[in-house]
Amino acid sequence: MTTPDPTLSPSLRSWVESANDPATDFPIQNLPFCSFEHPEEEYACLGVRIGDSILDLGLLHEADLIEHDHESEEGAGLCHALEAPSVNELAFLGRGAVRELRTQVQKFLLEGAAHTGGQKSRRIREKALFKAADVQLLPPAMVMNYTDFYASIHHATTVGSMFRPDNALLPNYKYVPIGYHGRASSIVVSGTPVKRPRGQMKKDDAPGEPISPPTFGACKMLDYELEVGAVLGPGNALGDAIAIADAEQHMLGLCLVNDWSARDIQKWEYQPLGPFLAKNFATTMSPYVVTLDALAPFRCPAYRRPEGDPAPLDYLKSDANERAGGFDITLEVSITTAQMRSKGLPPFVLSRSNAFRDMYWTFAQLLTHHTSNGCNILPGDLIASGTISGPEQSTRGCLLERTWAGRDAAGKPLPRTPIDLPTGEKRLFLEDGDEVIMRGWCEREGFRRIGFGECRGTVVT
Amino acid sequence: MTTPDPTLSPSLRSWVESANDPATDFPIQNLPFCSFEHPEEEYACLGVRIGDSILDLGLLHEADLIEHDHESEEGAGLCHALEAPSVNELAFLGRGAVRELRTQVQKFLLEGAAHTGGQKSRRIREKALFKAADVQLLPPAMVMNYTDFYASIHHATTVGSMFRPDNALLPNYKYVPIGYHGRASSIVVSGTPVKRPRGQMKKDDAPGEPISPPTFGACKMLDYELEVGAVLGPGNALGDAIAIADAEQHMLGLCLVNDWSARDIQKWEYQPLGPFLAKNFATTMSPYVVTLDALAPFRCPAYRRPEGDPAPLDYLKSDANERAGGFDITLEVSITTAQMRSKGLPPFVLSRSNAFRDMYWTFAQLLTHHTSNGCNILPGDLIASGTISGPEQSTRGCLLERTWAGRDAAGKPLPRTPIDLPTGEKRLFLEDGDEVIMRGWCEREGFRRIGFGECRGTVVT
Fold first, then answer.
1. Minimal Cα–Cα distance from A241 to chain B, Å?
2. Probe site for chain A from B157, B158, B176 (most A CB atoms < 10 A)
3. Do A281 and B374 touch (CB under 8 A)?
4. Residue B117 — very low, low, confident or very high, per pLDDT cuts 50/70/90?
5. Complex ipTM above 0.85?
6. pLDDT tens figures, A366-380
7. Are B413 and B407 in contact (CB under 8 A)?
8. Which of A280, A423, A424, B415 could form a disulfide with A183 if both were Cys (CB 3.0 to 4.6 A apart)?
9. Residue B324 to residues B276, B357, B451: CA-CA distances in angstroms?
């Protein structure tokens, strides 16, 4: 942060009163983009979250309250983006256009603006604002390509030690930002119920026992994965790589991601080509894309590699990235069971940490690696961090790790430690009716809190 | 084939003379769908290939030469499909609507039809027909999700033996149709040059040698993979599985696929989450979707599992599938080098076989497995077979296998056997300027030849 960005000044207040509450995720300094179904009409619209409300950008545009050059290509692009049903067209325009739009929207929402904006502005102000609780939110982007990474070294080490006790972290981990393609079609928005998947699974055979065949049925080891996703901006041509110095110009912003996982299906299917049906039954996105501009005060140095770790190869190296490639975001996962809800109990926190600071690879490195072979990205594509875990048990981002108790002296896994819930219920993995709630927010003295909202999903049969 | 389909009768002839040539891939009995750029206008259109020409279905529709019920939902769907730029909307309508459209198109193209169709039909006949060589073909579908399988047991066994000599076929192979998500954005149509990818690779360290770090540079082991793809039809709702008995109702037809692979990148990156940058730099599709109706005479029993192999689990079992789940297609891969082309030499055949008969899993099983966990497919999605190889070296569908010479008595890999080309050039993997040409066709007495055309790509730097 060399020059302070005036749109982030903590003194700014909005005429949307709920945005001035110090506890809100969505002050006028945030203004994340979303997609929602218009409550009266039946189409999807581009919106901005402010306090407890959603501002309909399409309507603002229709009323000609967003200035743009009617003659230029840029202006035509902005029109197109404001009429689009999701952030994809906006993402296509790039960081400069997004910044300009965010500034205009902020101006419209500023305390006092209503008095200066004239009668039309006052009328629109009422028509274009909906309570977020009253509208159906949609996935913010129409994700054409979804890539999931494996960037948390604590996650990779803990999970690796379960499957390969002598060989937890594979030799490529510290060189290659490991990733794979996820399923785009099954991405859903926060609040969508998640149906417990069915699939093949196979019990472990004791030594000397005959090999048992697999069975097909409902997954018994259903898990969540806490992740942060980057919604991508302008794409690259097939065959052209994106240099690390340019990588963040190709990102619109961040959201929360729950990459639901069926551990029993995963264990049996994943070799040699990686996870498939264990993951592609559902991936939940939070509804808001928080722009990199809004997150600027919360940047932090990239993970500092321990002595002895290799330096990244040249194409993944960048001083700027090392200085401020990370994000200091508090991430929390909580759960409610059907019983807890019927008793009116609040969500029970499963983990809370800033472990996202400690990703072995930054988003800039992930995107640069992704395109280093010439692979093309499209605006609105989603790349996700992989499960975010810290070293301590209370900071682990999935139940597979959270209930793992290590191994005994002989190397045999100890029984998993169930999580005790306030109702006396216990959880090793998710049961039907369980709701997983992920939240994320940034706080720093001298700045308003910037939040991501929630990424929720309830397991159903 | 219980009742013979009259559209497949070998006696049918077209007024497009080139379609009556017995050697054509595209007689009037085939009529595969494609997408092409209109040579005069600048938009993409839905077309049908006939002989050496493309018929513009959008124009036929505009001229009201395709009958449909203007009042019904089905009729509106067909209008929409005929105005669409690719086969996706048509795929959405399902096999019945596609069959009906194919029948109408055949009627329009039948010898004699021009005399009976009136003046308008004669005028359109000239306007709506383009020489295929004169138009820019596009990928036939806008592929939103691409899944690649690993269904050839000969391929899995040979490749497995290279990486895991004692453990070539993993224990899940005979139960789980192994697959993974490929990259949709980098799918290109036949004829698109393929840029040699760059990436991380690591040399094998000799025992006792210090471990060397990986390097970043141009791939040195670039390979093709011969595959057949199924372009999918109507989708399923997220959470609903597609039963094996219904699976083929969700397929529009087949095409050829070259799943280009960077073997050196693959070897270093693929554990534990599967192939990523080794594959996602390009995947080439042939331009024509050959309908399952046109392929009906060439169905054959599914692969007969050897004595001792387990039966498929119940959800993958189907008598009909076992009786006729396979396709008897001759597949051929050939190559030309820059030197060969400059000398006017014809393509050199690298492999030719009907090994696609012997997939361990049929397309119906692949699709049923894919959705068995509730994963949703979308119209126009692509699922591909994985590399198609037979047991003999001349039938292997990629260079990795084609030049593999096995191991010596001590288990050490023998030096690879280069392929000798007519110019005296040798190939272990692809060099810049090499063009790979895949072709596929079906032949059977009493039927016209049904072909797929070509799937071509030239390696460039």
1. 9
2. B176
3. yes
4. low
5. yes
6. 999 999 999 999 999
7. yes
8. A280
9. 34, 10, 19
